[in-house]
Amino acid sequence: MARNILIVDSSSSMRRIIKTMIRATVNDAVVGEASDSREAIDLFTACHYHIALFSKESVGQEWLDFAKEKSSESGAKRSNFVFFSSNEEKDYLEELKQYDIVESVIIPCSADELAERLTRICNPFVMRASRRYSAPNTVVHISQGAVILSAEVINFSAGGMLCELDAPHGYNWAAPAISNLEFDLDGYQLTSSGLHTVLSSLTVVDSNADNSPRRVRLACRFVDISDGAKADLGLVFAKIDALEEALRL
Question: How far is CA 153 from CA 59, 93, 117, 146, in A?
Fold first, then answer.
């Protein structure tokens, strides 16, 4: 999942500088811009932002009240607000605490420093909506028309999977597919079928001598999961939980 980051500042040059720093170091960032708090609040109505960076000169009371409201939301709805300035602004930082804003960054800083701060504030692993599981010998058969691919499943969840396979020929990565997962959990075998799947990302794990992909790793997202498939996955999750609990006893 991408991290949506909003930069709120009246200076287009400053927004461009910060945006360039983020895009240079945060690979999953989608960066938006607003010149003032009113424009920023309007953008929030159309898109959820995980992080909003703002300067003192570009916002007012409406923004602070809005930030306190968004910061108080739980789970995936919560937004993180970060004040940036060219100096410490200790008095303003104390005022911001009244609105549950405790994060700040001094600009200029290095792109790596900014990336580290943003990752600490909003870690992509924490953003996952459901727990990921891993089970040895799990395979998936991915069907797209007449093409059927078989892959090793590295991990999976209610929302998707990470799998690895030899790079196929004639496969349309942009098109959706149907996945059938096969599990073998300590002799407990189950198939979860008919999972509508779309590709989220692709990583080349190994290359041929001519530098073409030899083996690839796919991050896939499940969409339109049937009640039957959900039930099958639920049984698998429960079995893995029970096996892990038995090992702890």
Answer: 47, 47, 32, 21
**Rg of the chain in Å (alpha carbons):** 22
Q: Are 79 and 99 in contact (CB under 8 A)?
A: no
DSSP 133: B
Reduced to 3 states, what is the DSSP secondary structure of residue 117?
Answer: helix
Tens digits of per-residue pLDDT, 168-197? 888 898 899 999 999 998 888 888 999 999
Q: Is 90 helix (H, G, I), strand (E, B) or coil?
A: helix
Rounded CA-CA distance 99/83 in Å is 12
Dump pLDDT digits (tens) for 61-77: 999 999 999 998 877 77
Please state the φ and ψ torsions of residue 245, each to the nearest 5 degrees. -65, -40
Angle at 110 between CA 77 and CA 121, to 5 degrees: 20
Residue-by-residue DSSP string for 22-73: HHHH-TTEEEEEESSHHHHHHHHHHS--SEEEE-GGG--HHHHHHHHHHHT-
The pTM assigned to this predicted structure is 0.70
How many C-beta atoms surround the C-beta of residue 241 within 10 A? 12
As a whole number of angstroms, the distance between CA 7 and CA 238 comes to 42
Q: Which of 23, 25, 27 is nearest to 2 (CA)?
A: 27
Q: Are strands 139-144 and 29-34 parallel, antiparallel or unpaired?
A: unpaired
Greatest Cα pair distance in the chain: 66
